[in-house]
Design brief:
It is built from 7 helices and no strands. The chain has about 240 residues and is mainly alpha-helical.
Length: about 240
């Protein structure tokens, strides 16, 4: 009986040691888990702060681009209106223009529409990757709608921007104007330009050029108004 009690005491002591060891092990495991959770929380906080900084930097670049786009659209609108005025004079009062001014004018009216190259879409995508709150998400939604509409309108302008005099330039061997340098015309070019004016399709092509300019002016004016509106929206936010 005494031997049995001794064995029981040994088992009880061993169980007590195991219990203490188990509590110790669980405590260490809990500390490790808490440490990992704290490290993850700190890492997430740092990542959020980093995303916030990247968002602010990219947003500043986007705002600068928007400011430049407004300036370009204002400049572009002035150029387009001047070209439209020239086209209307050519259509209604072509006899008042003579000499080297004739080929120069035809080349001017047949020149392509200026396009503004911007990396705003890339910056906008970068902004979307660094959104950290609902306020930024709403802001990006409004700006995204703005650029989405403009992308469609820009494609429309490209489709509208037809050089209606190209065939006549080729038909009468008048050199096409360069997009990058001023074209110098000769007296012989003036004779060719006069023949272009006398061509039966000239007035029709000129009328198409006038209609094209009116459409592009409408789109550019719309873009300018919307650019100013989105800029004011950003400032208000």
């Amino acid at each position: 009986m005494i031997r049995l009690l001794r064995q029981f005491k040994k088992l009880n002591f061993a169980y007590g040691k195991f219990k203490n060891y188990l509590i110790y092990a669980l405590g260490e495991t809990l500390l490790v888990v808490v440490g990992i959770l704290i490290a993850l929380a700190i890492n997430n906080m740092n990542a959020e702060v980093d995303k916030e900084k990247q968002f602010e930097n990219a947003f500043s670049q986007l705002y600068t681009n928007l400011y430049c786009e407004i300036g370009f659209n204002e400049y572009q609108l002035t150029l387009l209106k001047n070209k439209l005025e020239t086209a209307l004079i050519e259509f209604n009062e072509s006899d008042t223009i003579a000499g080297l001014e004739i080929p120069d004018r035809l080349a001017y009216l047949n020149s392509s529409h200026l396009q503004y190259s911007s990396n705003s879409k890339y910056i906008f995508n970068h902004l979307q990757e660094n959104i950290v709150n609902n306020e930024q998400n709403q802001l990006m939604y409004q700006i995204g709608s703005y650029y989405s509409v403009f992308e469609t309108w820009d494609k429309l302008v490209v489709n509208l921007d037809i050089r209606y005099f190209d065939e006549l330039f080729e038909k009468y061997s008048l050199q096409k104007p360069s997009e990058y340098t001023d074209t110098e015309f000769s007296e012989d070019d003036t004779k060719k330009a006069i023949k272009i004016r006398q061509d039966k399709s000239y007035k029709t092509r000129l009328r198409s050029t006038i209609n094209k300019l009116k459409d592009i002016i409408y789109i550019t004016n719309y873009k300018l108004d919307e650019s100013i509106a989105i800029q004011e929206y950003i400032l208000n936010q």
